[in-house]
Structures are given as C-alpha cells and as structure tokens.
C-alpha cells in the first residue's frame, strides 16, 4: 500500500512537471507550421527563420525589429504584413548585414531595411544563392543597399535602395542571369554597380548619385533597357572589358557625362536619350567596334558625341542638336549604306545622322545632304547627313497620383487637327508612349499649325491649341496633368465609370475582377486612392467632347 501510494505520488509529480513544462514553454521554441507570424509565434524574425522548414511563409506584423537575420533555409518566404512603411528591420549590429541569405529560393518582401553601416555591410546580401526574389523593400542608410555575390538567376524588383553609403545595388563575382526590374537607386555614391557579371536591367531609376548612376565594370552581355540615370556625374558608365552589352531606350540626362564608354568593345547603343549633359555620349581610350544608332543627344554643353582614341565604331541615324555636335580623332564610320527608313527625323531613308549645324542642301529631295558633314577632330565625314522632312514633337504629360518611374510609361493616342478648319489630318492619329518622366516624342509630322489632342483609356482628352510645328525643329508641348477616371473610355467621368471601378474594388493586379482601366495611379490596386483621383475630376468631360 505504501509502495502504491509512493508510485502514485511520483506519477502525479511527473504529470505536474510535464504539464508545467508545456504551459511554460517559451514561444521561441514552438514548433513551426506552414505560416509563421512574428511576433505572435516568435518574437524575433531570426527565431522564426531558425524554426522554419522549407516551404514555410513567415509573416512579420507591423513594428520595428532590431535584428540581423541570417537565412540558410531554402524555399522560405519572409514578408511584412502591410508593406515597408509599417515594418522596419533595423540592424542591431551595424557591423553585420541586416538580411544575410545563403539559401536558394528565398523571398524577402516589404521591409524597410536600415543601418548596416559598417564597412562592406549590406541591407540585404545574397551570397552564392539562386532563384531568390527580393521585392518591394526600402533599403536605406546602409553601407551597401542590396548586394549579390556569386549569385545567379535571382529577381530584384520594385525595391528602393536610396541613401546608402556606397552602392544602392551591387552585383559582383560572376553574379549572372539576374533580373533587376523597376528598382530605384538614388542618392548613393553609385546607384547600380555590376562587376564581372551579366544580367538584365529594365525600368530602373538611378538618379542623383554622387558618382555613377549605372556602372558596368568588366561586365559583358548585359541588357540595359528603359533605365533612367539622371543628374549623376556619369549617367551610364561602361569600363574595362564591358563588352557585347545592349543599351536601348535608356535616358541619361543632366549628368556630366551621359553615356561613357572607356575601353569596352562590341556594345550596341540604340534609341537612348542623352540630353543636357556636358557630354552626351563619350567613347574613350580604345573603345572600338561599337554600334551607336538611333540615339538622341541634344543640348549638351561640350559635345553631343566625342570619340577619343577609339576606332572602328559605326555611328548612324542619331539626332545631334548641340552647340558642338561631334569630335573624333580615330577612324570611324559615320553613316551606313542608304537603306529604306524611316530615319530619326522622319525621312524615308536611313543613311547618316542629323546635325543641327549642317549647312548643306538637299537639292534632289532624297532626305540626304548633297555634301558631307565634316566631323571635328580629324578627317572623318558623314557622307549621308540627314535632312528633316517632317516636324518633330516632344510632348510632356503629368499623371496624378503616380510617382515618376515605370508607372509613368503609358501609351497615348495623339491626334492632329487643322487649327483653322478643325478637321483631323489624314495621317492622324499617331501612337506614342511616354517615358518614365512623362515625355513622348513623335517625328515625321507634316509642318504646320495644329490643335493637338492626347487621350489614354483612363483619362479625358486634352487639347493644346494652335501649335506650330516646323521641319527639323523639335517643338515642346506641355499638356499638363491628365484628368483620370474614364474607366470606359467615353471621354466622360460619370456614374458608369465608378460602377466599373467598384466591380473590381479592392483587387490586385492579376486577381479576379482586376481592371487596368480603373487603376488611375498605376499602383497595381483598385482602392480609395483611385476613387479619390476619379472624384477630383467628377462629371468632367474631355476637350474633344
């Protein structure tokens, strides 16, 4: 009986201990599930990561977290609940990276990441990883913003990497086949820096950095398209062994040097804009065998294009409108074989370049000057200088509610009406697409005076009256701010448009009910912000109604 009582007592004690252990177990050691919440399940992001398994999603609620997070579990998603404005990860140790990722297939989304200020430290660092997605983050006040080392096939999208000490975004040590899309890297020493890497850069903005907007060093086979690099010392800079790169539709304005090549070869520069710099396009120090076509270099204070000790480059179908258009002391080709156009000033044939200071004539009307254009610096000549046959238009548009950048890239229907009779011209309408600052260009317009309208599906028509367009002279027309809210494209903003908006209310791009024609601020959501813009112009109609 005594033994039985003792055994019973021991059993009770054991049960109490186990029960107490279960009740008192700290949440930091709880078993992870498919979705983990911080601070609900774990008070620290790092503890959630340590206890997560492949495939888990960690959702971080609003707040400020003082941590340095190491991520070595593959196929893990770490995201804020409500975006970077509400969720901050501040380096508890400034001499360590805020997020240090060494595993593949990791997603990090929606954080403000700050204060990894120690030399060489980064807000987000990927080391020898692949297939990671870094998106929607605000990375500020670190030594480096986002750093990829020996990391391939990753996606960096819609991040803001501003005001970091050295680089906003840096890829080096053969970080290849990564996609950098719709990122902003402003107010750093260098915006985006690639070293020994080949990648795709599209629709990124790298403005007002101390030295370089976008910098390629010994980096070949990259594609740079629709990027903006304004107000830096160097807008886009290719150096030492950066070969076989494609630069197309980029904007590099208001820098000391718009697009600079030093030593690289076999690059293609096509349809870029380099205006209002000291030098628009500069090739120096054995930059050979490059192709420079269909670019615009206007209002540069030193030269539109300058080639120093560089040869075997081909330069044609470019638009040069500067006090000093060109200088070349190498051996280069400044026109191509006469071929069917249209060319950059609206003529029917492609040959040489447009030169604002060309004084020759086109007596046979073929769109080429009768005499060559002499390039300053040596004996190079453009044997087929372009003579404008049309009138170029540069339109400026402002969009309400949308920050400058990719959201400002929009297609427009542009129509031309005789300013006296009001009749639309036979060759109207024309299609145009704005760049990331709301600027569009149309060439080949018949010289004359017009009432010019613009219209997008979401906005009301705007008309600028009595605009005179002259052959060869670009006319700048400011259409002001568009009036958004026309969901059904009938040029009125009324109840029918609001009904369409409410049909997709609260949906995100790609979701059921989503309608791009109602996303008036182009943020990917149909929300109160869109309705507010619509109500600003409620009951108004377009100028063409």
Summarize the structure in words.
- By secondary structure, this protein is mainly beta.
- The chain has a domain at 391-545: Immunoglobulin-like (Sandwich).
- It contains 4 helices and 43 strands.
- The strands form 8 sheets. Strands 1-2-5-8-11-14-16-18-20-22-24-26-29 form a 13-stranded parallel β-sheet, with helices on one face. Strands 4-7-10-13-15-17-19-21-23-25-28-31 form a 12-stranded parallel β-sheet. A 4-stranded parallel β-sheet has the order 3-6-9-12, with no helix packed on it.
- The longest helix has 23 residues, at 2-24.
- It is flat and about 80 Å long.
- The termini are far apart.
- Mean pLDDT is 91; it is low at 1-32.
Query: Sheet bearing the most strands, described?
Result: 13 strands, parallel
Sequence stretches where pLDDT stays below 50 over 5 or more residues: 1-32
* Helix fraction bin: under 10%
Mass-distribution shape: flat
Q: How large a portion of the residues is in β-strands, by DSSP E?
A: 25-35%
Mean pLDDT over all positions = 91
N→C terminal distance: 102 Å
Please name the CATH architecture of the domain at 391-545: Sandwich
Secondary-structure class: mainly beta
What Rg is obtained from the alpha carbons, in whole angstroms?
A: 29 Å
Q: What name does the CATH topology of the domain at 391-545 carry?
A: Immunoglobulin-like
Which CATH class of the domain at 391-545 is shown? Mainly Beta
In spatial order, strands of the major sheet run 1-2-5-8-11-14-16-18-20-22-24-26-29
